[in-house]
Design goal:
This protein has about 300 residues and is α+β, with helices and mostly antiparallel strands. It has 5 helices and 14 strands. The protein has helices at about 15-20, 55-65, 110-120, 200-210, 255-265, and strands spanning about 5, 30-35, 45-50, 75, 85-90, 95-100, 130-135, 140, 165-175, 185-195, 230-235, 235-240, 275-280, 300. Helix 4 (about 200-210) packs antiparallel against helix 5.
Length: about 300
């Protein structure tokens, strides 16, 4: 049976307010509540001793913690960042949190951190296996236009298992197409990226997103409909697995130019020497080789 929970309870025990965000000794009933730092660059967990005993009240208690700022002033609760939770419902281990339109005003970094904090906090409950966030009853999309869907805790664990979705500023060199699509032009992009995302995947994502428009004369070098299946680097070779849209020519950019846009951009990273591009897990028969090295013969500069 679907059960609905109202986030802001009309009657709250004052001890519940005091408990959220305070440290306690682990007596076997301690949960971790995740908060954002004031710089909104990472999430940190704070121990919380659960007071409630049944599943419904435990969920209400953790939701209240997510709306109450902790004692440490340098951290903020995820539900205090300018948007409102309209409804919460649990059905068969799947928890849906519906928020208002103001949620879409969060920056990309903050929005991911909010998801990380909420999911990691609530999936500690045995009754909650997955969490979904909807906006005014509609599906949530990420900054790449993909449906976010159901989330579990494993999606937000960093490589070392400690910090979740810390963000670093990266300056990468990307290769976009010339106006006629036959040559590549290098451009630098400086942007914060999630350390949950390998830098090489970030590079490919930014190529697919296309030029920013701040520099005239740069055009997309990779079909914007291309989806990333996987990106993996081993022994200096970066394996990039893309879907079939990568082979669809757009804006008069030949597949060969798209290939070297990816290759040249990736080998700018210090840990990559060669690139193998796969399409749906296989090397297309039309590719002249299975592994590519940097090609500067098709690189030009912007005319001044």
């Amino acid at each position: 049976m679907r059960r609905f929970y109202i986030l802001i309870l009309t009657v709250l025990c004052s001890v519940l307010f005091a408990a959220c965000g305070t440290e306690s000794q682990d007596n076997g009933n301690t949960y971790q509540v995740y908060y954002l730092n004031n710089g909104e660059t990472k999430v940190e967990m704070h121990p919380h001793e659960m007071i409630a005993e049944n599943e419904t009240e435990q969920l209400d208690e953790l939701l209240e913690c997510l709306t109450t700022n902790p004692e440490k002033l340098e951290y903020r609760a995820p539900f205090t960042l300018g948007f409102q939770v309209k409804n919460v419902s649990l059905d068969g281990g799947r928890l849906t949190i519906d928020v208002d339109e103001a949620y879409m005003g969060l920056s990309v970094t903050t929005e991911v951190l909010v998801r990380a904090a909420v999911v990691r906090t609530l999936t500690q409950l045995e009754s909650v296996s997955y969490v979904a966030i909807t906006v005014e009853g509609k599906q949530l999309f990420d900054n790449m236009g993909n449906v976010v869907g159901w989330m579990n805790a494993e999606q937000f664990i960093d490589n070392d298992g400690n910090e979740i979705n810390t963000y670093e500023l990266a300056k990468v060199k990307l290769y976009f197409a010339s106006e006629d699509g036959t040559q590549l032009i290098a451009a630098f992009r400086e942007k914060h990226y999630s350390t949950n995302t390998p830098l090489e995947r970030f590079v490919v994502e930014e190529l697919i997103a296309g030029p920013s428009g701040q520099v005239e004369g740069l055009y997309p070098s990779v079909n914007s409909s291309t989806k990333i299946i996987n990106v993996l680097t081993k022994d200096g070779i970066c394996y990039v697995n893309l879907d079939e849209n990568f082979l669809t020519v757009v804006n008069n950019v030949p597949t060969e130019v798209s290939i070297y846009a990816v290759v040249n951009s990736l080998v700018e990273l210090s840990n990559i020497n060669k690139v193998q591009i796969l399409v749906n897990g296989e090397v297309p028969a039309s590719f002249p080789t299975s592994t590519f090295e940097r090609n500067l013969d098709i690189v030009t500069t912007l005319e001044k």
